[in-house]
């Protein structure tokens, strides 16, 4: 045994054994902690349960607010949507690339999850529908044989009419029909039919390799813009509503992310186009300071200045000072 | 179209003030943390008195 | 070449952390406050996280949406996690206010922070494994930060399979390993001594 009662600080002496000891039972304490915690979480789980709001599906959007889905489809088809313009890791554009000067880690790995929103989210799913409904094939071949300029002109012609358009029984009703719209109105109706069937997400993800249901990247990207934001807004969970630390309904969320979320609410982060990058870097920096606080003169003395330790160890200090 | 997208449950309670929009359950958790921490320091620990 | 690796390891362990220190039956008298319970309560909550999570893993990720029993185990998991973070943060506050990194204990402090960060990742991947709107929303919202930081290309929040396997195996394994190291370090160094009564002496990290 190297334990000794020597008062001299020595590498070999167990520091704790220089102090007066009291009886203690580690195993008993651990056991009771587990039992007590078990009782606590059983009561909390029994009394409060947990929230479970189902995923927002394209079917739900198509039935509750179909114009949102139509707008999404057309901007995806025209490659003007947020994801089409996003940049790495989805494609080679730069619409959502965040940088500080020339520092843009987003671009370092390039395109690792290729997403072509016109193909992946609109044309491929419609192509699958064509196997069931042959009428879709002729619509799609009219689209494919047209030039890019014609396709864009068709989409824009439909988009211009959308503010006054309605959707009735799952069909788009435009104020004016005409050949300048090309196959686009039919493609919208087919898309709505596919969404209403509940098969749109599967039709999108079916392209994702051997286990499409395990990787829902592309179908999640379809609704990530307007639809998800409207829905989250109604649940009071948008980013500017501190949504990152909120749970659906009246449940506590990821409270431990309060600092990360706080940054998004305050300038300069709240107004910056590269807010995500700035926030991530700030959080990493602050975390690094906290992790290495034992080595940072000044900061490591804060506990000593706060003097809360005098309260925690008050009996010890009282005894020490009484002895003097 | 009517109401547009409708979640099956209403939004959770929140305390709003200027740019603050904090979930009530989150506030309860943080307040509980502070209270329990202060109590843990303030209350005399019964152990080791034998 | 005659050195016996097994014997060296055994001697090393016995020297660094003898059984009397690993499983103590006495503690210094200054260990006299409720704040010392936050660590063990965090550990207890972690035990319940693993137990409830194991049940959820056995029955698969769709079970708790369709079975009331499954939903109860999900609730157990949820509240264990809330308790885990609750007491971990109180433990962190207490250790900070005692400057518990002193006298060679800096790796205990750093390891604690690593566990906090891995726990946050475990929480994030857990939220993403839920298969409900919460998961959907966190995925589409969180992806921009991951992409901006340059890791979204291989840490894809929209990939359920990846998030689920990280959540139920990789991250818990890392946490358990870090936790083992944290506990060994605590017992190796013993409970941090009170700061010197003289308030003018500098806080050493040792």
Estimated share of beta-strand residues of chain C: under 5%
Q: What is the percentage of strand-forming residues of chain A?
A: under 5%
Q: Which parts of chain A are unreliable, with pLDDT below 50 for 5 consecutive residues or more?
A: 1-11
Q: What's the architecture of the largest domain in chain C in CATH terms?
A: Up-down Bundle
Shape of chain A: elongated
Question: What structural class results from the helix and strand content of chain C?
Answer: mainly alpha
Task: Reconstruct the topology from this structure.
The complex is a heterotrimer of chains A (324), B (50) and C (206).
Chain A: E1 21-23, H1 26-48, H2 58-64, H3 66-77, H4 117-130, H5 135-145, H6 148-161, E2 166-168, E3 171-173, H7 184-196, H8 200-205, H9 217-223, H10 226-234, H11 258-265, H12 275-291, H13 302-306, H14 308-312, H15 314-323
Antiparallel strand pairs in A: 2-3
Chain B: E1 14-17, E2 20-23, H1 24-42
Antiparallel strand pairs in B: 1-2
Chain C: H1 5-16, H2 19-22, E1 26-28, H3 37-59, H4 63-66, H5 68-97, H6 106-128, H7 133-148, H8 160-189
Helix pairs in contact in C: 3-5, 5-6, 6-8
Describe the structure.
The complex is a heterotrimer of chains A (324), B (50) and C (206). Chain A contains 15 helices and 3 strands. By secondary structure, chain A is mainly alpha-helical. Chain A folds into 3 domains: 1-49, no CATH class; 58-228, no CATH class; 235-291, no CATH class. A two-stranded antiparallel ribbon of chain A has the order 2-3. Chain B has one helix at 24-42, and strands at 14-17, 20-23. Chain C is globular, with a radius of gyration of 21 Å. Chain A binds chain B through residues 22-24, 51, 53-54, 56, 60-61, 64-68, 167, 227, 230-231, 234-237, 240-242, 245-253, 255, 258, 265-266, 270, 308, 311-312, and chain B through 1-14, 19-26, 28-30, 41-42, 47-48, 50.
Core attributes:
heterotrimer, B: about 50 residues, alpha+beta, two-stranded antiparallel ribbon, 1 helix, about 40% helix, elongated, C: about 210 residues, mainly alpha, Cytochrome Bc1 Complex, Chain C, 2 domains, 8 helices, about 70% helix, globular, disordered C terminus
């Amino acid at each position: 045994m190297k334990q000794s009662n020597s008062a001299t600080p020595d590498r070999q002496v167990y520091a704790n054994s220089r102090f007066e000891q009291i009886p203690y039972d580690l195993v008993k304490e651990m056991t009771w902690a587990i039992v007590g915690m078990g009782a606590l979480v059983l009561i909390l789980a029994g009394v409060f349960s947990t929230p479970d709001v189902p995923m927002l599906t394209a079917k739900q959007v198509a039935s509750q607010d179909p114009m949102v889905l139509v707008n999404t489809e057309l901007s995806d088809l025209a490659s003007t949507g947020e994801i089409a313009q996003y940049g790495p890791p989805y494609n080679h554009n730069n619409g959502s690339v965040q940088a500080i000067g020339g520092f843009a880690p987003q671009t370092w790995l390039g395109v690792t999850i290729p997403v072509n929103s016109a193909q992946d989210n609109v044309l491929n799913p419609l192509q699958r529908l064509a196997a069931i409904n042959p009428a879709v094939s002729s619509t799609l071949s009219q689209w494919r044989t047209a030039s890019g300029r014609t396709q864009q002109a068709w989409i824009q012609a439909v988009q211009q009419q959308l503010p006054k358009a309605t959707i009735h029984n799952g069909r788009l009703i435009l104020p004016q029909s005409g050949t300048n719209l090309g196959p686009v109105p039919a493609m919208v109706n087919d898309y709505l039919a596919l969404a209403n069937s509940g098969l749109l997400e599967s039709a999108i993800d079916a392209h994702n390799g051997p286990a499409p249901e395990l990787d829902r990247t592309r179908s999640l990207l379809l609704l990530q813009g307007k639809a998800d934001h409207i829905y989250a807004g109604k649940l009071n969970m948008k980013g500017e509503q501190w949504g990152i630390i909120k749970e659906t309904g009246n449940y506590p969320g990821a409270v431990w992310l309060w600092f990360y979320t706080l940054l998004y609410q305050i300038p300069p982060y709240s107004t910056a186009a590269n807010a995500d990058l700035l926030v991530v870097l700030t959080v990493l920096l602050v975390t690094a300071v906290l992790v290495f606080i034992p080595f940072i003169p000044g900061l490591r003395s804060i506990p000593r200045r706060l003097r809360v330790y005098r309260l925690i160890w008050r009996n010890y200090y009282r005894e020490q000072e009484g002895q003097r | 179209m009517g109401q547009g997208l409708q979640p099956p449950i209403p939004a959770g309670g929140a305390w709003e003030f200027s740019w603050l929009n904090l979930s009530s359950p989150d506030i309860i958790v943080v307040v509980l943390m502070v209270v329990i921490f202060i109590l843990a320091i303030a209350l005399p620990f019964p152990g080791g008195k034998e | 070449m005659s050195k016996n690796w097994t014997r060296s390891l055994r001697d090393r362990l016995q020297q660094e952390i003898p059984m009397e220190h690993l499983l103590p039956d006495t503690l210094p008298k200054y260990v006299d406050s409720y704040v010392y319970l936050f660590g063990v309560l965090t550990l207890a909550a972690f035990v319940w996280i693993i137990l409830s999570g194991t049940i959820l893993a056995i029955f698969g990720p769709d079970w708790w949406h369709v079975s009331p029993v499954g939903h109860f185990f999900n609730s157990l998991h949820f509240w264990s996690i809330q308790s885990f973070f609750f007491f971990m943060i109180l433990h962190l506050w207490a250790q900070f206010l005692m400057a518990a990194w002193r006298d060679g204990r800096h790796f205990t402090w750093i390891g604690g922070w690593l566990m906090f960060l891995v726990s946050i990742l475990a929480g994030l991947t857990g939220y993403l494994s839920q298969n409900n709107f919460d998961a959907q929303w966190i995925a589409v919202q969180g992806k921009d930060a991951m992409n901006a930081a340059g890791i979204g290309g291989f840490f894809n929040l929209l990939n359920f399979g990846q998030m689920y396997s990280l959540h139920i195996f990789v991250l818990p394994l890392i946490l358990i390993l870090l936790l083992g190291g944290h506990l060994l370090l605590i017992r190796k160094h013993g409970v941090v001594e009170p700061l010197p009564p003289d308030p003018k002496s500098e806080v050493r990290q040792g």
